[in-house]
Amino acid sequence: MKHKVRLTVIDKKLYPELQQQYCADPNSGACPCYNVGDVFEFDRDDGRDDFWHCGLNTLIHTDADPDTVAGGPQMPHCSELWDAISRYVYTGLQGGSIMKGWMERENEMIACCSDGTRPVIFKIERIDYE
User: Fold this and answer.
1) For residues 9 and 81, what is the distance between their CA atoms, to the nearest angstrom?
2) When you count CB atoms within 10 A of the terminal residue's CB, does the N or C end of the chain come out lower?
């Protein structure tokens, strides 16, 4: 059995009142790195190791310009997101349970980056295949 991990952007939040109060640029706006509906797939097989490269070129679907999406062909995933999800991506690539007992399915998890004024929410899935 082999495993890959799929990330899907399911939502983006924006808290302008917090940006106004705390950010150097009080009009920073929503995260520019990801779009709702973006999909990424991580492989770690056949000489490919997307985990080691922080998800560079894992983007498989976007409605935006791929060159402007973190995880696309031009840049790895955002460091705030990578810090929040890398352990789950690694676990899934090894075939492990991502969140047994918490989520309805042990091979899925909902997580977000740690940007408190504009978090991006992802669905993380372990995909099993032969």
Assistant:
1) 11
2) C
pTM of structure: 0.94
Q: What is the DSSP string of 37-56?
A: T-EEEE-EETTEETTTTTTT
Q: What are phi and psi of 86, to 5 degrees?
A: -55, -40
| Terminal C-alpha separation, the chain | 5
The two structure tokens encoding residue 108? 């899925």
Torsion of the alpha carbons at 7, 84, 34 and 125, rounded to the nearest 10: 10
Q: Is 77 left (phi over 0), alpha (psi -120 to 50) or beta?
A: beta
Taking 90 as the threshold, does the pLDDT of residue 99 lie above it?
A: no
| Angstrom distance (rounded) from CA 49 to CA 67 | 20
- Model pLDDT for residues 5-56, shown as the tens digit of each residue: 999 999 999 999 999 999 999 999 999 999 999 999 999 887 889 999 999 9
Pairing of strands 44-45, 108-112: unpaired
What the block records as the tokens of 27 is: 């009009």
In this structure, the strands spanning 120-129 and 108-112 are antiparallel
